[in-house]
Specification:
The chain is an alpha/beta fold. Helix content is about 40%, strand content about 10%.
Length: about 525
Amino acid sequence: MTTLTDGTSTLTRDALAVLQPGFTGTSAPPWLLRRLGEGLASVGLFGRNIASPDQLASLTAQLRAERDDVLVAIDEEGGDVTRLEVRTGSSFPGNHALGAVDDVALTREVAAELGRRLAACGVNLNWAPSADINSDPGNPVIGVRSFGADASLVARHTAAYVGGLQSAGVAACAKHFPGHGDTAVDSHHALPRIDAELSVLQARELAPFRAAIEAGTRAVMTAHILVPALDPERPATLSPRILTGLLREEMGYDGLIVTDGMEMQAVAGTYGIERGSVLAIAAGADAICVGGGLADDETVLRLRDALVAAVRSGELAEERLADAAARVRALAAWTASAGERGPARGAPTGQGSRVVSAGHSGSAPRVDVGLVAARRALTATRAEHCAPLAEAPYVAAFTPVANFAVGDQTPWGVAAELQRMLPDTETGSFVGERAGSEALAAAGGRRIVAVVRDAHRHVWMADALDTLLAARPDTIVVEMGVPQSPPRGALYIATHGAARVCGLAAAEVIAGA
């Protein structure tokens, strides 16, 4: 074990190098800068760290002033899961909307534009795309984060997304290996289990990850799920059979393997984050994501010391830890070289991503590629009795509890966009058994726009729609989750996601109905 001139050992530096911690605040705290100087190689950003593109660019510049090759990671899927636009809603529709369009060139361009925005802000690793197949329509954590329920569709769009994102010099991270779509449990709260046969997993769950690997994805994120057909004892994140045997050896993947958040209860509640981190590195993971919930120096030191102690006790091979740290540094080197070819860090980013319309010259009017995609993804079904709006409507939003990945900070729905188009629009939010009758009373004589999100997963929400439609058959229904039931209402709009641009696309249709 070598001791370096700054007093740290190579073992300690390697233990720090494999951590991807978060922090609080919109500037780097002193402890984080200190750990970067001691060997920390990655930092994870969340919505709490971002106020504006300019502020984010300043923050990443602050990090790079301490370590110029730092990996700055973010969970920016677009759609429902956004960190860049957590306070306004995303300028990009999510995966399910892109899958509904099923134009791989469009998916690639959306990912490239998102990548350019990230690169301009100094972010070089995106924990995206979700390569999960939404096999279980009741899935509480994937849903519209998936391109769809068909393996071949998800595979081709995963590959297109990886290619687009990395064309901007931002490393893609296909997640959540070996596939989180066929689960009825959110791994933020408990350990999910997938009981599919091996042949089903090979043909279904693994297909998008094979496509991502073939497309050259620089990172893969593990899932905290138990898959008995692959390993009956340990969840994927902690399984040598799955990470080394399947992903490395059988599937031939040689890039970075990063864990999902280690503070999630699927691991933290069963193994603890220290023990879980040691087992994950030993199993073949290269980077430990922590910081969505735990974001302090104490956590970093606990994990660093747990890894060092595991090496010294013989539980974790020093060579395995060194190999993991080397993969982190190799990805950092790739992003540095890619960044030299991509957008200048700190360049102006604006609020929307924009591309020139097809068929026009560079001086022609420019079109927002995210809005184009949202408009193309939207489907509208009109009943024979559907009449145009005679006045500004009443928007009744039936609001479910947001899952942890989406968060409850990001606005969603159509009300804000409709109010810009029709200023007299009124709105209310409803939840629970009496939601339908309460919405009827609040609306009075106004035309109702009922906005739902995965109505098939929430009995109270489906009942609220029944109540509204029985009393007011002219109700307009907007489904901003995964559409399941047959079209209902005078006008039924499926946006395939709740991003801001999805709401704007729906509002355009409603205002012109």
